[in-house]
Specification:
Elements (H helix, E strand, L loop, with lengths): L5 E6 L4 H10 L5 E6 L8 H8 L7 E4 L6 H6 L1 H22 L3 E6 L22 H16 L3 E6 L2 E2 L6 H10 L3 E4 L4 E2 L2 E2 H15 L7 E5 L5 E2 H12 L8 E4 L2 H8 L4 E2 L4 H7 L10 H15 L12
Parallel strand pairs: 1-2, 1-3, 3-4, 4-5, 5-10, 6-9, 7-12, 8-13
Antiparallel strand pairs: 8-11
Length: about 325
């Protein structure tokens, strides 16, 4: 008798997180993953549901789609709502009609960052950014519609998206633009490939029928200040090309205004570990590859600048 095939929809197949997760799932025995572009869910709910019905009905849906670049969400709240809330509304409506569990990727930015200790899943939320507000709204919507849900809030995202924060730091360093830093801001960086690992581990255990629905936190191991994180990035980048970064120490108000960072972006991940047995991995093991990707992105966008042959040292 053959092993039962678990079918999983990954909503947001075009996003860095969706691509990472689909790459991991394709090598898993017994799992059939179907990637679906998240942009389709920003249109009419009826059209979105009709599109979903064209695929094989899944056993579980993982929702990775959002508009998460903070400069974009702050400057265009309507677009943020469309991508971050309307999309999960359409997906959860479809899931509700068939009783399909949903895993939603969320963020530490549902908190205001003023707590002195790492945030626990049970702590009251108080988002201050448009992104945080839309993620909280999407969480609330999913909770209301779907009893069987997992909300996975993650730390400060490390990704190789050409429009992402890490790319911005790499680009500013290579082009000699000022980089604001602060020793006061505490973060728990979290790489997209690490989040995919966690999602897969959760998925595998959910298929065993365990009843552990709710909100969980995950972030990379090793809390770091914003200044230390930037310094680590620059050290890695220096292996590809000499950089002379313009580092500026920022006041709390300057940094929050410029980057929308929380003063405390750390998360307590014990609930996830105690429930699923998932250990935290250090973000430092993922960062070199991501910095290299961002360097390559910059080289490609500056075709007249040749890449150094190899990392030095």
């Amino acid at each position: 008798m053959g092993t039962r095939l678990t079918t999983v929809y990954v909503i947001g197949s075009e996003s860095p997180q969706g691509k990472s997760l689909l790459s991991l799932l394709k090598n898993q025995v017994g799992i059939q993953s179907i990637g679906i572009e998240g942009g389709m869910f920003t249109r009419s709910s009826e059209a979105s549901e009709e599109r979903l019905r064209q695929f094989r009905q899944p056993d579980l849906i993982i929702h990775c789609h959002d508009l998460h670049h903070l400069d974009q969400t702050e400057s265009n709240p309507a677009a943020a709502w469309r991508h971050n809330v309307d999309s999960i509304s359409a997906v959860s409506k479809y899931a509700e009609s068939f009783g399909i569990p949903v895993i939603l990727s969320s963020s530490n930015l549902v908190f205001d960052g003023r707590r002195e200790k790492p945030y626990q899943p049970s702590n009251p939320t108080k988002p201050v950014t448009e992104f945080g507000k839309t993620k909280w709204a999407s969480e609330e919507l999913l909770r209301e519609r779907m009893p069987k849900h997992i909300i996975l809030r993650t730390g400060w995202l490390l990704e190789n998206d050409p429009a992402g924060w890490l790319q911005g730091i790499v680009t500013r360093a290579l082009e000699g633009q000022p980089i604001l830093v602060s020793d006061q801001v505490q973060l728990a960086p979290t790489a997209i490939d690490d989040i995919s690992r966690v999602m897969l581990a959760v998925l595998k255990q959910l298929t065993c029928g365990i009843d552990v629905w709710g909100v969980y936190h995950y972030s990379g191991l090793d809390v770091v200040s914003y200044a230390e994180l930037v310094d680590t990035i620059l050290d890695i980048l220096g292996g590809y090309q000499q950089v002379n970064p313009v580092i500026q120490q920022a006041s709390e108000s300057q940094l929050v205004r410029a980057t929308l960072l929380p003063m405390n972006g750390t998360l307590n991940c014990l609930k996830l570990r105690n429930t699923f047995g998932i250990k935290q991995l250090s973000w430092k093991r993922f960062l070199p590859g991501l910095v290299e990707d961002c360097y390559d992105n910059w080289v490609e966008s500056n075709a007249d600048i040749g890449r150094s042959a190899c990392p030095t040292g």
